[in-house]
Amino acid sequence: MESRKVNISPLFLCSWSGGKDSYFAFYRALQQGLKPAVLLNTLNEFGERSRSHGIPKELLQQQAESVGLPIEFIQTTWANYEANYIEKLKELKAKYAFSHTVFGDIDIESHRAWEEKVSAAADVKAVLPIWQENRRTLVEAMIDAGMQCLIVSCRKELADAIIGKIITRELLTEFEELGIDPCGENGEYHTFVVNGPLQQFPSTVRFSDYSVHNTYAFLNFLTEPK
């Protein structure tokens, strides 16, 4: 009797901010033949919003439901971030049996080194599907893929010009005039993907103005999905 080889796609956990880079890294990982198992997001120590981006937990849960995957959370301070991240990876590996972790970093070597370090500590392999791509070309590819990337936080001096806007080619031109990196890799801004090729339905996002905390501005969401 002839035997047939069965190809099993490697399972991955995606380090998920809800923003454009992690979203597109996930999208590229699918194109590379990997299979998603779970999303992992890091919340602030109060467990209400994501770190850096300031996205409400409920909105991230709605987005994950649209993607069709479970989402897990780490609630942590910056001081305990690495230890908590490794512990959570180990816990989730046992639960979801993934062999790879997917990250959305582009070209900052220290970020890649950290991602490889924490992944190795959990005995899984880090994959960076958008590593070393041209930053503007990368954002244009996101737009072409149908991703609607809403700017939800940014440096306070940029807020009046860009916060609350969806990234378009026209806005990329404005970025250039304002001296903003196309991907925001220098910390100029963060996004939330309202809709795109991974989602079955768009996220419902309503906001008014913004608030400033230290040197950063964050959208004020009017209602948080239940």
TrEMBL record:
CDD domains, sorted: AANH_PF0828-like
Annotated ranges, domain Diphthamide synthase: 16-219
Pfam families reported in the protein's UniProt record: Diphthami_syn_2 (PF01902)
NCBIfam families hit by this protein: MJ0570_dom
InterPro entries noted in UniProt: Diphthami_syn_dom (IPR002761), Rossmann-like_a/b/a_fold (IPR014729)
Domain of life: Bacteria
Official protein name in the record: Diphthamide synthase domain-containing protein
